[in-house]
Design brief:
The protein has 21 helices and 23 strands. With about 650 residues, the chain is an alpha+beta fold. The structure holds zinc ion. The site of zinc ion (ZN) has 7 residues, from loops.
C-alpha cells in the first residue's frame, strides 16, 4: 500500500465508513419542534451525569473518562427550537414517520432488507451531548449494497437516530450545549470495512451523500452530513475518527491514521527487539516538584504558582523515541500531548525536547539523578494537580501501551486532516430498549408508499439537468452537489440570467472567495437572491459579481449598498460611447497600422477603464462599430 508517496510495505488497512445525514422532514424525531438553528438563551439547565455499573457490574471506560473530568453540563434553549422533550422533562412523542419513510426509501435504493418491526433503542451517550444520557436509535434495514466507483460496497445497517445537542462552549468547569440540534432526525448508514485506497473511500462517501441528497430528504450545508471513519491496520483493532465533515478531508485522515498506526506498530516491534518489557521499562509516577525549586523555567514556575506539582516518569530504553518522526506529525511525543490535552492538561514535557521550555541542562541532570535515568533512557514530566491520579495513571497507561502497537480509541479530525485522541473507545454493550415508545410494524403498504421516494441514479439525474439548463457536466455536478441547489432553480425560473452564469457564481465564485479567506457563511439565500435580481435588472454587470460577493462577505449590508459603495453603477449608453470614442480617437496610429486587428488591444484598453461598469458584450459591439466608422473616415481622408 502506498501512503502519501511512501511505500508502507506488506501492510493492509481496512476502512469502515459510517455516514450521518440530517433529514429535512419538517420536525424533530420525537417531538414537533421545527428544525432550526437558534442558540438564543431563553432557558438554562444545569446537570451532572454520573456513571453507573452495567448489569454485569462493569463501568464503561469511555464513561469513566468523561466522568473523570468532573464537568457540569449546561443546556441552553429557547421555545423556538426545543421543548420539554429535549430537556428530558417529558416522555418522547410518537416517532416522526417521515424520517422512517426516508430511511426506507434509502434502504430500497441500497437493496437492503427492511426489518419487520421497528424497535426504538437507547444507546448510552456519555459526553453530555444528550440530556437523557442516551441517544434513541432505530434500526430500519440491513445487508444492502452500495454501488460506487465500480465497487460493490456492502451496507451493514441503516438506522434512524436523533442528533446530539450542539456543543457551543467548552469551559474548564462545564460544557455548554445548545438544544436546537438535539432530536433532529439523522439517517445513519454503516458500510462494511473496505480494503481500498483512501481516495476511493472519498468517492464512496460522495456516492452515498449524493444518493441521500437525491431522495430530497437530506438537509444541505456544512454540518448536516458527518462521517465517522474506522481505520485499522492488519492484525490490530480499529480507531474511530468521529465527525469528519468535509469530503476532501477523508483521504487525508485515512492516510494520517495509517501512518500513525504503522509507526506505533514499528515502535512496539523495536521495543521487543531491544528486549524491553512494559513493566520493567515504565516507572511509577513520582512527585519531583522539589527538583524544580530554583528553576528558571517560566512554564514550570507558572504551574507551581497555580498550585500544581511536577510528576516524573522514568521510561527505560526510550531515548530518542519520543521525537522520532517517520511521517509528518507522527511522533510518540504528540501521542502523549494529545492525550494530556483530552484530559484537560496543558503541561507535558518529554526528555527528547530538553533542554527547552526554559528548563536548563542542570535541571535535566537533577531530574535524571532523582529518577535514576540512564544514558539510553528517557523521562516524561507532567504538570498536574496534586492527587490527579486518574490523569497520571492514564498517561502512564499510554506509555505501557506503546508496547502493544496501535490501540483502539476514539479520535477527532483536525482542520488539516490530522487526527487527535479524544477518548477511549466505549465498551460494546451499550444498547437498551426504549420503554417509552411502542414498536411499529413495517407494513407492505408503508414500503410501497416509500417507493416513490427512491431516487433515479445520479447519472440520469445529471443528464436531465444538463439538458434542462444547458449546463456542461462539470457545472451540473457542482450545482447538484451544492447547498444552493434550490436557490439555483429559483433564480433560473424567476430571472432571464443564463443558468451557466448562475451556477458558476453559486459554486465556483463562492468557493474561490471562501478560499481567499472571506466568510461565505454570510451569503444566505435571501441576499444571494437579491444579488441575482439586481444583476438581472442591469444594476451592475456580471464582471463585478465577484467584487460584490466579497463586499457581502465583509459586512451584512444590502446588495445595492455594496454596489453603491464599490462605485459600480453601470455607465449609460451615452457615457460608454464617450469612453470608447475617446480611446479610439487617441489611438489613431494603432488603428492606421493594424486596421481591424486593432480591436484586441483597444478592447483591452476600454475594459480596463469600464470593468464592472459595463457589460463586455455591449462594449465589444460599440467598439467594433466605432472602429469601422473611424476606419472609413481615415479611408475617406486619404
Ligand atoms: Zn421539542
Amino acid at each position: 500500500m502506498k501512503v502519501n508517496g511512501l511505500e508502507v510495505k506488506n501492510f493492509r488497512a481496512k476502512v469502515g465508513l459510517e455516514i450521518h445525514q440530517q433529514l429535512n422532514v419538517g420536525s424533530k424525531l420525537f417531538c414537533e419542534c421545527p428544525i432550526t438553528e437558534s442558540d438564543e438563551v431563553e432557558y438554562k439547565i444545569l446537570r451532572y451525569l454520573r456513571p453507573t455499573q452495567s448489569e454485569l457490574g462493569e463501568v464503561d471506560p469511555a464513561v469513566m473518562f468523561e466522568f473523570r473530568k468532573k464537568k457540569a453540563n449546561i443546556y441552553i434553549y429557547n421555545s423556538k427550537s426545543a421543548c420539554l422533550v429535549e430537556c428530558d422533562e417529558e416522555p418522547p412523542h410518537p416517532i416522526n414517520m417521515d424520517a422512517i419513510k426516508a430511511a426506507i426509501a434509502v434502504a430500497l435504493a441500497l437493496n437492503s432488507k427492511i426489518v419487520e418491526e421497528l424497535h426504538v433503542m437507547r444507546k448510552i451517550v456519555i459526553d453530555g451531548s444528550n440530556t437523557t444520557g442516551f441517544q434513541r436509535t432505530v434500526l430500519v434495514a440491513l445487508d444492502g449494497v452500495l454501488k460506487a466507483d465500480g465497487l460493490d460496497v456492502p451496507v451493514q445497517t441503516i438506522s434512524v437516530e436523533e442528533d446530539a445537542a450542539r456543543l457551543i462552549e467548552e469551559r474548564e468547569d462545564a460544557k455548554v450545549f445548545s438544544l436546537d440540534r438535539l432530536g433532529i432526525p439523522l439517517i445513519e448508514i454503516s458500510l462494511a470495512p473496505m480494503e481500498t485506497d483512501p481516495k476511493t473511500v472519498e468517492k464512496v462517501a460522495l456516492a452515498l451523500g449524493r444518493l441521500l441528497r437525491l431522495t430530497g430528504f437530506a438537509a444541505r450545508g456544512l454540518g448536516t452530513i458527518r462521517q465517522d471513519i474506522n481505520i485499522s491496520i492488519e492484525g490490530f483493532p480499529p480507531c474511530e475518527v468521529k465527525g469528519v465533515q468535509k469530503l476532501d478531508l477523508i483521504p487525508k485522515v485515512i492516510e494520517y491514521e495509517i501512518m500513525r498506526q504503522y509507526h506505533l506498530y514499528n515502535v512496539a516491534k523495536l521495543l521487543k527487539e531491544r528486549g524491553l518489557d512494559p513493566f520493567s521499562s515504565i516507572g511509577e509516577y513520582m512527585d519531583i516538584t522539589e527538583v524544580f525549586e530554583k528553576t528558571g523555567s517560566k512554564v514550570i514556575k507558572k504551574a507551581l504558582d497555580d498550585g500544581k506539582k511536577v510528576y516524573g516518569i522514568k521510561v527505560k530504553g526510550f531515548k530518542g523515541l519520543f521525537k522520532m518522526e517517520p511521517y509528518p506529525n507522527v511522533r510518540l511525543g504528540l501521542e502523549l500531548a494529545d492525550m494530556a490535552r483530552a484530559y484537560g492538561l496543558g503541561g507535558i514535557i518529554h526528555s527528547d525536547e530538553l533542554p527547552g521550555y526554559g528548563i536548563s541542562l542542570e535541571d535535566v541532570e537533577r531530574v535524571k539523578v532523582r529518577l535514576s535515568v540512564g544514558e539510553s533512557d528517557a523521562f516524561v514530566l507532567i504538570l498536574a494537580e496534586e492527587r490527579d491520579h486518574e490523569t497520571l495513571s492514564a498517561l502512564r497507561q499510554r506509555l505501557l501501551q506503546f508496547f502493544e502497537g496501535p490501540v483502539p480509541e476514539t479520535r477527532g479530525p483536525t482542520d488539516d486532516g490530522r487526527t487527535r485522541y479524544s477518548r477511549p473507545r466505549p465498551g460494546a454493550a451499550r444498547m437498551y430498549p426504549e420503554t417509552d415508545i411502542p414498536l411499529i410494524r413495517v407494513t407492505r403498504e408503508l414500503i410501497e408508499e416509500c417507493r416513490k421516494f427512491v431516487p433515479k441514479p445520479w447519472n440520469e439525474v445529471l443528464k436531465d439537468y444538463m439538458q434542462k439548463y444547458g449546463l456542461n457536466e462539470k457545472l451540473a455536478n457542482q450545482i447538484l452537489d451544492s447547498p444552493y441547489l434550490s436557490l439555483f432553480e429559483k433564480v433560473c425560473s424567476t430571472t432571464k440570467l443564463s443558468p451557466t452564469l448562475v451556477s458558476v457564481v453559486l459554486t465556483e465564485h463562492i468557493v474561490n472567495i471562501g478560499r481567499e479567506g472571506f466568510d461565505t457563511s454570510l451569503l444566505d439565500e435571501e441576499r444571494l437572491m437579491e444579488l441575482f435580481r439586481l444583476l438581472d435588472s442591469g444594476q451592475f454587470s456580471k464582471e463585478s459579481v465577484v467584487e460584490i460577493l466579497k463586499c457581502m462577505c465583509s459586512e451584512k449590508v444590502g446588495v445595492s449598498e455594496c454596489v453603491k459603495k464599490l462605485g459600480l453603477k453601470p455607465l449609460s449608453e451615452e457615457e460608454l460611447n464617450k469612453v470608447v470614442h475617446e480611446i479610439v480617437e487617441s489611438n489613431k496610429v494603432l488603428l492606421n497600422s493594424m486596421g481591424e486587428r486593432s480591436f484586441g488591444p483597444l478592447m483591452g484598453m476600454v475594459m480596463e477603464k469600464v470593468r464592472g461598469k459595463a457589460d463586455g458584450g455591449k462594449v465589444s459591439k460599440i467598439l467594433k462599430e466605432e472602429i469601422a466608422r473611424m476606419l472609413q473616415e481615415i479611408q475617406r481622408s486619404k
